[in-house]
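Record type: monomer structure entry
Structure origin: computed from sequence
Chain ID: A
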Amino acid sequence: MSKVSDIKLKTKQIVKKHKGDKSALIAVLQDIQEALNYLPKEALIAVGDAMGIPASRVYEVATFYNAFSLNPRGEHIVKICVGTACHVRGASAILDKFERTLFIKPGETNQDRKFSLELVNCVGACALGPVVVIDTEYHGQMTMAKVDKIIGKLKEGAQ
C-alpha cells in the first residue's frame, strides 16, 4: 500500500468511527492529527469526500485552529511558554537552549522528525515558570541542565 492510500484508509476509518457526523469535523481532524501527527492534504480531501463537506470547508477549519498542523511534525512536540510570567523567569534563555540543542527554530521540525519546536503564549502554570510542555508532560522551573537531561532521555527513547 502506498503512503497516500494508507492516509486515505486511516482517514476513512476515523470518519467511520464518528459515523460521518458533520458536526464531528473537529473531532475527526483531531483524531487524524493524533494518528498521523499532522493533517496531510490527502487526509483533508478524504475527510471532505467521506463526510460530504467541501474540501475548502475542511481546510478552513484545519487552518483556523492553531492546534492543527498541515506540515509534518516531530515525534515529540516541544512547546515553550513565552507568557509574561515565564518570560520574566527566563523563557527566552530556555528557548535559545532548545534551539541550540535541537538545531531548529520555533515552527520547525528537525531533519529526523524527532522534535518540533513551538511557542505558546501561556500554558496556565505561571507559578512554575519557565514552563516547557513536551507532548503532554509539563516541565516547570525549567533550567539549562533540565533541558539537556530531558532531551537526552527523549533521544534515547525513554520518557
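Annotation 1: The two ends are 32 Å apart (CA to CA).
Annotation 2: The CA atoms of residues 41 and 151 lie 31 Å apart.
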